[in-house]
Amino acid sequence: MPTYEAVINGKPRKIELTRTSPDSFSAKVDGRPRQIKLQKAGITPEKVSVIEIDGKAYKIELPKPEQGKKIPVKVEEVEFEVDVKTANKGGALTSFEPTPQAAVKKTGTNRKVAVEGAVAAPMTGKIVKVKVKKGEQVKTGQVLCVIEAMKMENEISAPRAGTIREVNVADGSPVNEGETLFVIA
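Given the sequence above, the corresponding C-alpha cells read:
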C-alpha cells in the first residue's frame, strides 16, 4: 500500500492509498479509512474535476504542477496549500498515481493467483484479531481484521460492501504481504 506524507496548510498528514478499481481508491488519512472515487476522466490540472469522498461529491481544482513547489488545491471554495512527499524517499512529488494492490490467493503449489473481490495483506505480520465471519455482510470501510507488523497494529478495512465469501486467516496466524485474507462477494 503506497504511503505518502503530506503537509496540508502546515499540518502533517499520513496518507495510504490502494486502488480498488480504475476510478476508485481505498485510503487511510491519519489512520481513518476513506473511500475515494474519481470521475472517469480522473483529475485534470487546470480544470474543475469532481471527486467523491465517502459518497459525498466535491469540486476540486489543481494548478499545473511545478517540480519542488507546494501545490495550491481548491476544494469547493476553500484553498489548501499541499506539499506531498513519499514516505520512503522523502522527495517532493508534483503528482502521484497509486499503484493497484494485486489481490492474490495462494494455491496448493505455493503459486499466487488473482481472485476477484480478494482483500490482500498489505504487509507481512501476524493477525491480532479477525473481526468478521464467513457469510457476514460488511460495509465499505468496515474493519475486517487487525495485523501487527513491526510492533504496530494496522486495521485492514473492506474496500467495498458485500458478503464475506472466504476468511483465510485466524487470530494469531502469520501472513505475508500479498496473501489473500478475505474474499468479498
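The chain has no helices and 19 strands. Try to locate this feature in the C-alpha cell string yourself.
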